[in-house]
Amino acid sequence: MKKIVFFALVAALALGGCKSKKQMAQSQYTSDPTEQSKVFTVPGDDEARKQQETVKEPETAAPAEPEKPIAVRKEQVSFTSQDDRTNNESNTFFVILGSFSNLNNAKNYREDLLNQGFTPIILHSETGYYRVCVNSYQNETDARSRVAQIRQTYPKYSDVWLLIKD
Q1: Among 79, 100, 118, 132, which is disulfide-ready with 84 (CB 3.0 to 4.6 Å)?
Q2: Sheet of 93-100: strands edge to edge?
Q3: pLDDT for residue 28 is more than 90
């Protein structure tokens, strides 16, 4: 008899314990998703309602996306080409689109940029990297405005940065 009562108790616990008792979290700020939204109408003058419906809210412009800060790095660089050296030696600020540890990769990237209308040069950094530069300037303001213009015109080059010749 004790065995039958014991097995009945175990069976009752097993069947009763399988039922999930989880409930969706309730908050005063959330509504029950199964509940349909309520629509209320206010009885009144149909003409006043029509006039009210035709009044449009002024459209507000979407907030402008905050500009991404321009990364700046100060390095000693040398030119890989004598022509590039004579044309850009007096400049201090260089707009960099790519950086490579392998010169052949930098040359291939330079060719891609030439096909897109840029006039890139390759700089060899003191860190050993080959920097692919698309513009150089004597004035930092001009260089920063070029970085902003590249970011706006060519979104795929949003990681463009500024190198300052040490």
Answers
A1: 79
A2: 72-75, 161-165, 93-100, 130-137, 121-125, 77-79
A3: no
- The CA-atom distances, in angstroms, between 26 and each of 29, 37, 75 are 8, 17, 58
What count of residues does the chain have? 166
What CATH number was assigned to the domain covering residues 72-165? 3.30.70.1070
Q: Using CA atoms, how far apart are residues 148 and 132, in angstroms rounded to an integer?
A: 17
What's the whole-number mean pLDDT along residues 60-86? 81
Phi, psi angles (nearest 5°) of residue 147: -60, -45
Query: Which uninterrupted H or E stretch holds 50?
Result: helix 46-54
* DSSP secondary structure of 123-157: EEETTS-EEEEEEEESSHHHHHHHHHHHHHH-GGG
In angstroms, the CA 24 to CA 39 distance is: 25
- Give me the residue spans of the domains in the chain: 72-165
Cβ atoms within 10 Å of 114's Cβ, excluding its own: 11
Q: How far is CA 115 from CA 84, 97, 111, 135, in A?
A: 18, 14, 6, 16
